[in-house]
UniProtKB/TrEMBL annotation:
The keyword Protease does not apply. This is DNA-binding protein. It comes from Mizugakiibacter sediminis. Keywords: DNA-binding. NCBIfam families: antidote_HigA (TIGR02607). It holds the Pfam family HTH_3. GO terms for molecular function: DNA binding.
Length: 98
């Protein structure tokens, strides 16, 4: 046996920030932040901030991401919401920000 418990549902205690997914796509396509920003019609600093988790994905940004790199706007908004919700829980659990 491989040591992996079977039958238990996969319930990770983490969530991947949307920026990780965006960065992976950029690497796969050989694009820079500047290239993605140009294709989306937004500032390179905004893309960099999203990738670094410093800026949220808005409806406008989600639409641009869906148009340029794929999936749907709702996918990007759900990913952002899940990430922010998990950060909030972690902050509450650790007492950070008090």
């Amino acid at each position: 046996m491989s040591g992996i418990e079977t039958g238990a549902p996969f319930a990770p205690d983490w969530v991947s920030p949307p920026g990780d997914t965006i960065a992976d796509v950029l690497v796969e396509r050989g694009w820079s932040c500047a290239e993605l920003a140009r294709r989306m019609g937004c500032a390179e600093t905004h893309i960099s901030q999203i990738i670094n988790g410093e800026a949220r994905i808005t409806e406008e940004t989600a639409s641009g991401l869906a148009r340029v790199i794929g999936s749907t706007a709702s996918f990007w908004l759900r990913k952002e919401a899940a990430y922010r919700a998990r950060l909030s829980v972690r902050t509450d659990d650790t007492g950070a920000g008090q």
